[in-house]
Amino acid sequence: MKLAHSTWLEAKDYFARRDLVVLPVGSLENHGSHLALGTDGIIPSYLVDLMAEKLDVAFAPTMPFGVADHHLSFPGTVSIGLDGLYMVMKKVVDDFYHHGARKFVFLNGHGGNDPALNRIGLEMAPQGALCAILDWWVIAGDLNPAWRGGHGAGEETAAMMAIDPALVKMDFFCDYTPQDLSDQLTYDRGSNVLCNGISVNVPRDVVQYAPPGWFGSDHPTTANAIWGQEMLEATAQFCIDFIEKFQKVQWHGEIS
Fold first, then answer.
1. Is residue 93 part of a domain?
2. CA-CA distance, 47 to 163, in Å (whole number)?
3. How many structural domains comprise the chain?
4. In this structure, what CATH number is given to the domain that contains residue 32?
5. How far apart are CA 197 and CA 192, in angstroms?
6. pLDDT, tens digit, for every residue of 216-238?
7. Phi/psi at 254 (nearest 5 deg)?
């Protein structure tokens, strides 16, 4: 059930029967010149639509903002930062806990959100509650290595083609050559550089190593809607399988 479409009486009945809530979390940020800023929220929301047809659990509305400080050079990006996301989502979780929820599944669309969500999970566990974080793009890549991808690259482009082709604007697509940090510290992936064959993270704004905003070995021009739909359906089915197992877990928070 989608809580935003339900009455409080329906919610009361649900929490008398179940103690699990799915919390989709996105971000409003650069995804290259060809993808919508809301990609990280649109994809989890679509996965919710696929899952809600088959799964009797409560789905919260998608959180549209996340941790995107490294994209702020791109107009339209909004970041509420680690502290902001933590405070908002912790309050959401606390309120659902008050209503009887003890299992929380973050259906996450953006890697920058993970530290805040992890913190919430660690804080809830001693209270007899469990949080799980489902990073959809990681799950997809583990299900099929051919789907594994970077940021705003083939994986996300394929997903958006399947969801709404109007939000994929390849007429605006810009290719580029990744920017090395120096002759001896060369581009690896994301903000990482290679030093003597070893990858080292050097945090900085995306525009400083990938000027158009996308990066990854899965080039956006290889994407197609068939790939996207197969990937999204498989990912949704995995999430369903996980949630069905997760909701059966008996957890009280004791440390032995």
1. yes
2. 10
3. 1
4. 3.40.50.10310
5. 12
6. 999 999 999 999 999 999 999 99
7. -70, 145
Q: 């990280």: which residue's tokens?
A: 40
Of the candidates 111, 62, 57, 65, which has an alpha carbon nearest to the alpha carbon of residue 87? Answer: 65
Q: Domain residues for 34? A: 3-168+223-246
Residue 41 lies in a domain: yes
pLDDT digits (tens, 9 = 90+) for 24-82: 999 999 999 999 999 999 999 999 999 998 999 999 999 999 999 999 999 999 999 99
| CB contact at 8 A, 76 and 30 | yes
Burial class (CB in 10 A: 0-12, 13-18, 19+), 137: buried
Measured CA to CA, the distance from residue 60 to residue 5 in angstroms comes to 10
Contact 168, 34 (CB under 8 A): yes
Strand, helix or coil for residue 35: strand
Residue 76's SS3 state is coil
- DSSP labels, 88-149: HHHHHHHHHHHTT--EEEEEE--GGGHHHHHHHHHHHGGGT-EEEEEEHHHHHHHH-GGG--
Specify the residue for token string 């008996």. Answer: 250
Helix (H, G, I), strand (E, B) or coil at 132: strand
* The pTM of the whole model exceeds 0.85: yes
Q: Which of helix, strand or coil describes residue 199?
A: strand
CA distances from 95 to 22, 33, 91, 214, 240 (A): 14, 38, 6, 36, 24
Q: How far apart are CA 256 and CA 26, in angstroms?
A: 36
CA-CA-CA-CA torsion sign (34, 37, 43, 45): negative
- Write down how long the chain is: 256
> What CA–CA distance (Å, rounded) separates 110 from 125?
23
Whether residue 148 lies inside any domain: the answer is yes
Q: Of 173, 167, 157, whose CA–CA distance to 218 is shortest?
A: 157
Q: Examine residue 141 and state whether it is found in any structural domain, yes or no.
A: yes
Rounded Cα distance between 112 and 32, Å, is 17
